[in-house]
């Protein structure tokens, strides 16, 4: 498999952890001199799970130090961070069906308080994915039970939620992403995507059915992303190395960026297994972004079960950043400094990349 580009100029630091790494996220920047990462960990021997806040030494990238830790009631299934009026906020969903909000101190990132939603009417089973709205005031949660909930994180010690949709188990949702204050996208089985508009209650405003992908109804969307400046295009990654985009201006079509069965004239694919996470990659000159046509898909970063972290650009060769001997389960691009990327590796470690 040929991969374009080179990682020779990358600075990569790997840090062993004492437990399995389920998810990683950057914490919104608190100061110019300090950097913090949020890591969801699980111990298979004891069954214990936790969320740790790690302090990073940006000058030397020495071994991260534990700043704060929170014990989770169950294994974490999804992790998100955002900035709120109370400071940095962490949203974590669990396999037990609960969603927890942890509030970090704005001075030293120590975890100060926690609120949660955990009643049986919330989700019947595991919560597949959560996503925090910019500002941290509202959280979207989806589950394999077919329920979509919006959780209001107010200025009190309590949270409330309302049901947006319930398929009664007929449809399962595995990924979700806010697009605007009133719109969001979800993904699920069969490479399907749904677009929701809260101004149009009763069901999805638009759907992309999975039969576009050679009838592979068993495929699954694991991750979706929406660019803040181009909300009409939804990016998705899933089974069999599939990465595609859905343009709402042409809702019955998909734009394939990578898939496991390629024709000879198509570009090489970065991976052939499950694409666990996908994000738009803003690490490129702003002049290039301004010159990119609105119908052209902006660069995307992916991580996969076969240990690949790569950047995909439409019509170009993929650029491989990492090729590990184990799965890369999750990653996050620093919004304030897109040159920095943190990854969670299956072999109980995290990796931090610094691009030149």
Automatic annotation (TrEMBL):
Nucleus is among the record's keywords: yes
Main location group: nucleus
Keyword Phosphoprotein carried by entry: no
One cellular-component annotation, GO: nuclear pore outer ring
Subcellular localization: Nucleus
Listed InterPro entries: WD40/YVTN_repeat-like_dom_sf, WD40_repeat_dom_sf
UniProt keyword annotations, A-Z: Nucleus, Repeat, WD repeat
PANTHER family membership: NUCLEOPORIN NUP43 (PTHR22652)
Protein name stated in the entry: Nuclear pore complex protein NUP43
UniProt source species: Kalanchoe fedtschenkoi
């Amino acid at each position: 498999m040929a991969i374009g580009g080179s990682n020779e100029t990358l600075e990569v630091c790997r840090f062993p952890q004492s437990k399995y790494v389920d998810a990683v996220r950057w914490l919104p920047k608190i100061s110019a001199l300090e950097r913090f990462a949020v890591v969801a960990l699980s111990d298979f021997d004891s069954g214990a799970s936790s969320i740790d806040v790690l302090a990073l030494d940006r000058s030397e990238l020495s071994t991260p130090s534990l700043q704060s830790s929170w014990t989770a009631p169950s294994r974490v299934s999804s992790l998100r961070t955002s900035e709120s009026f109370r400071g940095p906020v962490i949203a974590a969903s669990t396999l037990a069906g609960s969603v927890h909000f942890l509030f970090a101190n704005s001075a030293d990132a120590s975890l100060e308080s926690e609120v949660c939603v955990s009643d049986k009417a919330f989700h019947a089973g595991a919560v597949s994915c959560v996503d925090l709205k910019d500002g941290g005031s509202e959280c979207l949660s989806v589950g394999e039970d077919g329920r979509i909930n919006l959780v209001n994180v107010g200025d009190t010690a309590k949270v409330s939620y309302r049901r947006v949709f319930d398929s009664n188990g007929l449809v399962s949702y595995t990924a979700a992403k806010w697009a605007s204050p009133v719109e969001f996208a979800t993904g699920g089985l069969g490479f399907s995507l749904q677009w929701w508009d809260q101004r149009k209650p009763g069901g999805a405003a638009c759907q992309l059915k999975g039969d576009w992908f050679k009838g592979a109804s068993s495929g699954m969307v694991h991750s979706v992303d929406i660019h803040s400046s181009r909300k009409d295009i939804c990016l998705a990654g899933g089974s069999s190395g599939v990465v595609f985009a859905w343009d709402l201006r042409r809702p019955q079509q998909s734009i394939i960026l990578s898939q496991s069965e390629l024709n000879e004239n198509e570009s090489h694919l970065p991976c052939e297994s499950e694409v666990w996470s996908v994000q738009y990659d803003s690490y490129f000159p702003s002049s290039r972004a301004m010159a990119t046509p609105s119908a052209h898909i902006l660069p995307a970063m992916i991580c996969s079960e076969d240990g690949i972290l790569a950047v995909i650009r439409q019509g170009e060769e993929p650029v491989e950043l990492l090729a590990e001997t184990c799965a890369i389960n999750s990653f996050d691009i620093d919004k304030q400094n897109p040159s920095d990327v943190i990854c969670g590796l299956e072999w109980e470690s995290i990796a931090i990349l610094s691009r030149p």
